[in-house]
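Supplementary Text 2. Reproducibility record for the structural model of the 241-residue chain.

All settings were left at their defaults, and a single model was retained for analysis rather than an ensemble. We include the record here because the model underlies the residue-level annotations in Supplementary Table 4.
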Amino acid sequence: MRLPILVLHICAGILGLVSGAAAISFRKGSRRHGIAGNVFVISTMSMSTAAAYLALMKHQMNNVFGGVLAFYLVTTAWATARRRDGQTGIFDWGALLFALAVGAGIITYGFEVANSSTGSKDGVPAGMYFFLGSVALLSAAGDIRMLVRGGVFGVHRIARHLCRMCFSLFIATGSFFLAQQQVFPHWLRKTNVLFLPAILPLILLIFWLFRVLFTNTYKGTDSPYRVHEDRAALREQSLSG
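Retained model, structure tokens:
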């Protein structure tokens, strides 16, 4: 029964890496960005679900946590892009509780690993669990801030979307280029060049956040997804009319 799920995981992972690279490269809010982003969301949801299931069967808790966190990040990133400024719902409250539970679980497991005789589990040091747990808890803090303020607006909504999409892509690239180095030739592994594509999503995240928050590229508009919002408004008007 694991073979079909493994095939799904591999295929969705490859599609997610390609579509994620395309989405992060295209201009935010463009048609190409939207198509690539939707493909990335669907493929990442499939990949992370399959990865968490397979890892649970093998008792690889680091991959379970990584899969669950990637699923949370990509779904909340998608919801942020699709909603209008200042719009929240029951989904956001559920996502907050989910992030708090995941973050607390990862941090707790990290302390167990840190207190073990080796300080690692399946070759993964305790610091990696603390890093993933911190990402989950910081994301939960962002959810709380959004709910208290009644939503996110303008460029801050774009920044929230970018952070979550890029971190979910980082989990995918790190899991492939660093955790699965055995699939690459030995000469390539010795060069340590695989470290670059693994952290590339974080580098691009810094670039896009600077462009969104500190330049005038996206200021003066509600969001780069305004075209989708305008289409939704037109559909609502046509239905009400």
